[in-house]
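May I ask for a single protein's sequence together with how it folds?
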Amino acid sequence: MKAGDKIGGQFATLERPTAFAPSISDETPTLSDEARERLSEGEWDDELEAELTAVATAVAKAEVGGGYDLEFVDYDDHLNEEQIDAFLLGDPECDLQNEISDVFSETRYNSTRREAQELLDGLGIDYIDVDGDALEAVQEVVENHNTSDPVRDLAKNTPSQLMRTQLGADFMDNQTAWRDEHGPLYDGHDDAVYPSRAAYITDHLQKAGVDTASFTVEDRENISLLATDGPYNWHEGVRLDVIWYGDIRDAQLPVPQHDGDKQERKVMFGGKPYGSRDSTGQARIVLLDPMNGSGYEVPLSTPITTSLSKDRPAHLDSGGSTHGYGWDDAAGVYKPAYAVEVVDVVETDAQSEEIAA
């Protein structure tokens, strides 16, 4: 990826603003006079390396934040669509981390050299006089105390996005059993199919954990609208998703720290967080045919709780790795109208009972 290959921003200078070298307090370990003199004369051996590394490490830990910001992210730098998808997946293969690391490799190298030189200057040593191996030893200490996280900072700068995630199992998974018991779902020419479609949608929502028993009259009317004004023909590609506009960090899967770590996150859209009286907005669902862009979306008064996972992650509504049409492609929506708070659900036994009730 080149420096400008993203939405907005430039990753432009990739240079942090020039800063003065920090002063070293009396409490911070410093080099012995003998070591300082030998280094200034260009000498280098194991004993000097051990002492310089120990002092440089102490100085690094004394920095604000315990290290150095070697990869400066400007205020208008943020992730592009493909990178957002990788971020939402929790970047299990570290592809995004490696990509961004490559972009910042030059500025990280320059920053490391500058911080190493300033560290030596703070110790009263002109880096020009020291042996190359000594300078490399200090640079290694600096890089080992790199506190930068450009992916985190780029995600923080990324504007709110319109996103979707699948509710429960694939929407049409139960079609055969439903048809045998309740009648067909496909034939849009027959008005008699619409009540069956509405019942199928309600059944799917219930199986996905939505409290359909609490539906208002308006909710039930909205489900009927999905059935009548949604995709004309139903096929295996038709999806029923929750759709919202918000911070991508609220929908990121946990980044695995070890092999075999489970990537799953349970979240609630709309309603009220546990222990709160404040409404977080209405959740909205969309019935969409990505093949031709036909669909319909409605709000629900009841909150929607769903699990994000590697198989069913959050993703951009349009663009990125999205296959086919998104809802914005089809309807040209005003995205902020879909803003809703996304709340992590950490279930205690009482909360599990509350969700199931």
Notes: The first strand starts at residue 161 and ends at 166. Residues 57 and 173 are 58 Å apart (CA to CA).
